[in-house]
Amino acid sequence: MIDAKGNVHANRERLVFIILVALLLLVFSVYLLTQGKRTSETKSGLNIAVTFYSLKPDLDLLVCEGDNVFSITPAGVDPHEYQLSPADIEKLKQADLIVSTAHTPFETQIHELVTRGELKAVLIEIPEIPQIKIRNNPMTGQPNYHWPIYDPDNYKVYLSYVESKLEDLRSNCKSTYKSHLTLILNNITRIQDSLTPISVCAVATSPPVQYAVEWTGVKVKYLLQKEEDLPATPQDIASIEQSLASGECKLIVIVGSTSTPLAQKALELSGKYKVKYIVIPSPISPQSTLSKINEVVKILNSLKY
């Protein structure tokens, strides 16, 4: 027969055993959670989608080993005419981060998919980044969303913001992201410091030129193409010709190829009014924006006024 004292002793042992088992389960659960988090951070990198192919080279300079940067639009394709395919959407569903210029129809669709929760990635829309300076189009008076990161100060803000989001998503690569960012920022500052500023009024072929040159002292007053599919009117052309003839604007800036009808018109005006012209890289060409800014500085430094 077990007396009351024996029952108390047995109950106490059972209680101690239960508590020990519970503690062991708790410790094991915490261990599994910690290991799971560590494995998710280290076994593979981030999937980073960019909407324009020309956004990819700069992020390739920034990311950590194992990260994968991929573009929705292929190299050489005009993103303004691109439409998302079902395969694109499936790729975007695998993305941890999406970087968008936020001004083409397919980028609007991406924004809507993220808003509805169909895409789980963190979405960075460049014009919405805090401290990005958006200029007003000189011909329309409306915000110019065409490649604001062609301005080196905006470029710095942009990459610093992206780097902070990469840290949030993959903290074990924090030191790598920071060191890569520092190298890029030092490089762009060196490029800026190498510029000999000039002050001149210019006619440009299209809106991205504004960000590429206005930080240097060049003032874009006229555009031959005011917006995508919105050419200058005959009245606009008359004003441009008057400005060139009078000597008000003394530079013509062509962006991209000189073989387009727009560039051919610019070359015609240059020859007619004996005004200098320069050709700068297109923002959608496959080189990094860093290298394009460097090229712009070299070209402008070669001008003599």
Name the features.
305 residues, alpha/beta, 4-stranded parallel β-sheet, globular
Please characterize this protein's 3D structure.
This protein is an alpha/beta fold. Helices cover 49% and strands 14% of the residues. It has ten helices and ten strands. It is globular, with a radius of gyration of 28 Å. It starts with a helix and ends with a helix. 30% of the residues are buried. The model is unreliable at 1-10 and 34-43 (pLDDT under 50).
Strand and helix map with partners:
Layout: H1 4-42, E1 47-50, H2 56-62, E2 68-71, H3 86-93, E3 97-100, H4 105-115, E4 122-125, H5 152-169, H6 174-193, E5 200-204, H7 208-213, E6 218-223, E7 225-227, E8 230-231, H8 234-246, E9 249-255, H9 261-273, E10 276-280, H10 289-301
Parallel strand pairs: 1-2, 1-3, 3-4, 5-6, 5-9, 9-10
Antiparallel strand pairs: 7-8
What's this entry about, in short?
This protein has 305 residues and is of the alpha/beta class.
Q: Can you tell me the overall shape? A: globular
Count of DSSP-assigned helices: 10
> What string gives the helices and strands in order?
HEHEHEHEHHEHEEEHEHEH
Low-confidence stretches: 1-10, 34-43
Going across the biggest sheet, name each strand in turn. 2-1-3-4
Structural class: alpha/beta
> What is the average of the pLDDT values?
89
Rg calculated over all Cα atoms: 28 Å
The biggest sheet, with number of strands, parallel, antiparallel or mixed sense and barrel status, is: 4 strands, parallel
| β-sheet strand percentage | 5-15%
In total, the number of strands is 10
Helical fraction equals: 40-55%
Q: How far apart are the first and last residues' alpha carbons, in Å?
A: 113 Å
